Amino acid sequence: MGNGLGVYRLSPWCLYGVCLSKKAAQVLLSEAGEGFIMDFGTHELGSEDFVAVQASQG
User: Please, are residues 26 and 38 in contact by the beta-carbon 8 Å criterion?
Assistant: First the structure.
């Protein structure tokens, strides 16, 4: 398991990607579109699992 910035949507669940840098995650966030958020958390490589350490609101 590793740590990184995840770009995801809660409902329906979609993990768009996980990055090591904030800059790269912001690029993914802009590509992902409406309804996606970015948080730091843990991710199991090769899976859709992502656990946010501090979940964003909204």
Answer: yes
